[in-house]
Amino acid sequence: LASLSLPSSMHLIQVDSVQRWMDDLKLMTDCECMCILQSKPISIEKDEQNELILSSQYSTCDNLQLLLKRAWIISTELTRIALKVEKNRWQRVHSMTVRVNCHVRSMINEYNTLSRNFSEEMHQFEELLVDKCSEFTAFTERCIQTEDEQILKSMKSCINEMLTTVAQYFGQLIELVLTHEAQNLLRQIELSDSMYITELAISSLFSLTQEGAHLCRIIAKEGGVVALFKICRQDCFRCLYPQTLRTLASICCVEEGMHQLEKVDGILCLADILTDNTHSEATHAEAAAVIAQITSPHLTFTQHLSSFLENMEEIVTALVKLCQEASSGEVFLLASAALANITFFDTMACEILLQLNAMKILLAACSDKRIVDTPYSRDQVVTILANMSVLDQCASEIIQGNGVQLLMEMLFERSSSGNSAEVAACERVQQKSAVTLARLSRDPEVADAAVKLSCIPRLIKLCRSPTERNNSDSVLVACLAALRRLAVMSPDGLEDSDFQQLVKPRLVDSFLLCTNMEESFV
């Protein structure tokens, strides 16, 4: 069913499967039996007090979570119906269609009960969706009453068309509802003078951003970045700055958010926050998180951040200070991640870092296990070192700060948990430490220190043993490059077999040899 397109906004945080089943059970039990009851409108005159009590029990965030859970179930059911249609499981198709019909009606009634001020367009889509679901249910009922294969075959294309239409109406309705909720929250942020209401609205907005990039685009389009930076420019809301900045970092993962940030001089505001010593460490850390987000090398739409270059020296200086004074691993991680991204963003940043003695500060932080306590933090540090190592003056800084010893230790980085994200971080640490060694070993003093610390045997082990590098090709290439650079500076450090296999051939031939070793082990 190529044309079936379900809403991209359906994204729920993964949780334990049993817990998910328990949460969904109340939404899925006997929905066919309850459909008629749930579809009856609640009388405003007679049940006004009950309705008020019901509304007061749920915040906007609760409403949205209920809506998104119900929408996720509907989205999943529509996908399953498409699969059952392909397999001609007509009885299952019909029962699932009845269930979707009930869920759609329940979702609309629940939302209408808990929310207010709908647009006419939203009401129209609700009616279109309900009518199409009813038509779809009636049509699938005819399928189970027919045994003629030819008739069923001809009805199949109609079912696919109806299914596609239901999915489209459903997606458009969800889009309208989410836009409506985002508008309500932003209106509260912009118009309310109450600290409590503003805080609740920002918290609900942050929850929305966690539902995926599609929600972030909606919020950005509706003026979310503008409203949040307005908060960050008012001293009376200082206690809300961390929460506001955290929400901004989430919205700025999409291009629309970045464009809005540029339009409201967001970079200048972030620079002012970072350089203002009267702000709390939490505020500085969240501002660093926004900087890390907007300078991420994984984003393809950072070229328009022209104002960043104008404020870069101030921002880098403030981030180095934050790294030096960080009271926790989390604060250091956010500040160092921002610095690491900036070194990719512009090469001038590396020269600024060198002038600020950042190398010494970062190397000192790595010796404090309370501050640099995860592979993720070491990944940021070694990224900065790797990018700074292109500068000739960097070698003496590394020697003075005992940096070669740190790089050697990083070649042994292994995950303690086996978590896939942590394993990937460990691979990056190994790769970048080898890259940094390769670049710095053009200086004889660094190369001599690396040889004395037995870097060559460790690099050989990483090349020859796939398990040591977690079967990573990028680590292998980096280690081969570092080994060849050290072999030039200290040829006596290698046995003849290692030289003949890992150094003398072309890099690609040594790479293929080592990857073939991997296959033979398997």
From TrEMBL:
One of its GO terms (molecular function) is cytoskeletal anchor activity. Signal peptide: none annotated. InterPro entries: ARM-like (IPR011989), ARM-type_fold (IPR016024), Armadillo (IPR000225), Insc_C (IPR045789), INSC_LBD (IPR031938), INSC_LBD_sf (IPR038205), Inscuteable (IPR039921). GO terms for biological process: apical protein localization; asymmetric cell division; establishment of mitotic spindle orientation; regulation of asymmetric cell division. It holds the Pfam family Insc_C. GO terms for cellular component: apical cortex. Residues 13-57 form the Protein inscuteable homologue LGN-binding domain. This is INSC protein. It comes from Pterocles burchelli.
